[in-house]
Amino acid sequence: VQIITTIKEMQQRISLLKQEGKSIGFVPTMGFLHEGHLTLIKHAREKSDIVVMSIFVNPLQFGPNEDFDQYPRDIERDERLAGSAGVDVLFYPNVDEMYKNEMTFHVTVKDKVDVLCGSKRPGHFDGVATVLIKLFNIVTPSYAFFGMKDAQQVAVVTSLVEQFNFPIEIIRIPTVREEDGLAKSSRNVYLTEDERKEAVAIYRSLQLAKELISNGERNPAMIQERMSDYIHSNTKAEIDYVEIYTFPDLKPLSSLTGLVLIAVAVRFTKVRLIDNMTIEI
Ligand code: AMP
Question: How far does CA 78 lie from the centroid of its chain?
Fold first, then answer.
């Protein structure tokens, strides 16, 4: 795998690849790779001639009291994993390279951010949109791969490419899980041993929702309550939200129908975890 750290060099590399007629598949990440990321790479590998992965912990998408400094990082391990998973080019700029000139524009996401992580993490999706506009312009991929683990991000990015006319197909990849069902996340390393055991309750609460729905329950408030009760009874975590919306519009609904997103966020002592399930009703 070739590591590139400057925007200029990345653009030169891309322009050569384009001259050779190569299609580019792009996997943006914050690194500390796990099987979720590797699955995105696998799909990118199948669909594109060249796979570009970016690793950039984007300060703009972290709030002042969030874990930007503590976010786990290990570029050597990532380089190895990315290489053996089939990444051709690893774009690894530092913060100064990405935001060298202080930004005098602010991207504000206006739709789909008054709910879920958007409402709990003010400005988060503005930061995500900003960095993705930059990365999409630098990498100019034909395809970009995003995990459904971050379903609201998928919804926002879908609007972003539509509204700003990026000629990029956004490809959604299902959530990759640990054996007990916990969604893989770079942040899982910050769970204590006990919390790691409890954390399966997040996944189980989603399974409970599925079961309630298959037994005919259609009232979202009912399902949210049962899920919250389950998480409360089985963990010491604090619930950030348990919410249900249409997907990808993220509109509330009084009776469940169509494609529905059921999403959870909880806080353990050192880490906030999210998970979700989409279900066609
Ligand atoms: P991150 O490095 O956490 O910003 O994630 C980079 C990409 O990997 C995003 O598109 C995530 O949605 C995706 N991703 C993270 N965890 C998982 C997972 N467990 N399964 C599938 N995709 C994931």
Answer: 17
187 in contact with ligand 1, CB cutoff 6 A: no
Say what the pTM is.
Answer: 0.98
List of residues 6+ apart from 96 with CB closer than 8 A: none
DSSP the chain: -EEE--HHHHHHHHHHHHHTT--EEEEEE-SS--HHHHHHHHHHHHH-SEEEEEE---GGGS-TTSSTTTS---HHHHHHHHHHHT-SEEE---HHHHTSSPP-------SS-SSHHHHHSTTHHHHHHHHHHHHHHHH--SEEEEEGGGHHHHHHHHHHHHHTT---EEEEEPPPB-TTSPBP-GGGGGS-HHHHHHTHHHHHHHHHHHHHHHTT---HHHHHHHHHHHHHHH-SPEEEEEEEEETTT----SS--SEEEEEEEEE-SS-EEEEEEEEE-
Tokens of 69: 């400094």
The response to whether residue 124 sits with its C-beta less than 6 Å from ligand 1 reads no
106 in active site: no
Ligand 1: nearest atom to the Cα of 149: 12
Q: What is the pLDDT of residues 40-60, one digit of tens each?
A: 999 999 999 999 999 999 999
Q: Which class for 120: exposed (0-12), middle (13-18), buried (19 or more C-beta within 10 A)?
A: middle
Q: Percent of the chain at pLDDT above 70?
A: 100
- Specify the ligand 1 atom closest to the Cα of 37: 8
Give exposure, 223-232, as e/b (b: 16+ Cβ within 10 Å): bbebbbebbe
